[in-house]
Amino acid sequence: MTINHLAPSGHCCADGPPVDVITWRLCRLLESGFAQDLARRLASTHAVDIHALLQLVDRGCPPELAARILSPIPAPGGSP
């Protein structure tokens, strides 16, 4: 098993001031192969566990399926 999600690389590791959480989440998802639109939606949804998503993708799960597996279940009476 690899743990590529724990060793970030690319432009998200630039030296300098820290970035906000949503920008960090978006960057990590994009680096892991998520499509831009899906990555933006997941990065701004705090109910989604980004680390769990990255672990699934690291184990070979396609990003779209990983997002579907870990998508939050809507509350009763809420929209699907």
What distinguishing features does this structure have?
single chain, 80 residues, mainly alpha, 4 helices, disordered N terminus
Summarize the structure.
With 80 residues, the protein is mainly alpha-helical.
Task: Write structural notes for this entry.
The chain is mainly α and 80 residues long. The protein has a domain at 19-69. Helix content is 44%, strand content 0%. The protein contains four helices and no strands. Helix 1 (21-31) packs antiparallel against helix 2 (36-43). The radius of gyration is 13 Å and the shape is globular. Residues 1-8 have low confidence and may be disordered.
Tally of helical runs: 4
Ranges where pLDDT stays below 50 over 5 or more residues in a row are 1-8
* Cα radius of gyration in angstroms: 13 Å
The count of strands amounts to: 0
What distance lies between the first and last C-alpha atoms, to the nearest angstrom?
34 Å
**Residue-averaged pLDDT:** 82
Tell me what portion of residues adopts beta-strand conformation: under 5%
Shape: globular
Coarse structural class:
mainly alpha
Helix content: 40-55%
Largest sheet: none
Q: Please provide the ordered H/E string of secondary-structure elements.
A: HHHH
